[in-house]
Amino acid sequence: MEKLYFNLSEEEFSKERKILLWGFAALFFLAGAYILVVNLVLGQKSIPVVLSAAPFGISLVVFIIAGFATFKGTDLFFLINDDKIEYKFGMIKPATHSFKWIDIKELVMPHKQKKVKLIFKDGSSFVIDLTWIQKKKSSHIRKHIFHAAREKDLNVIKVMNLAKKG
Question: I want to staple 76 with a disulfide (CB 3.0 to 4.6 A). Which of 8, 91, 123, 162 is the partner?
Fold first, then answer.
């Protein structure tokens, strides 16, 4: 089996998209500030102050998205090799997860979700959620996990969707 390694820190947002995000955030912030200035400083009461809440709210959301796109971690990865599945991914506080093939009893692979459920020999399980990874990368990772599991004679169960907890 060949090794699969993806550097997840690169190319999620291009520089142009980051500039657009920061520009839109600034534009909505200025729109909210303009409404406040027109009402409070210039005394035009035809535009209520409450209308500034929408642009400020939108600018806050876009600022948060732009911040995550700009300042995300640089050591995010996904690795599949002969010994283990290992990855580090997350938006706020990324954590490294590592699973050895010899500890895995079977896999559950849903058809309609970008997830893989690992069921271990000790009875516990873990769901690898690939939802936040680009579609091309996540489908490549899922295919590689599937073929690696078949090569290691693990039971692979295909389902339509993973059951929700609860």
Answer: 8
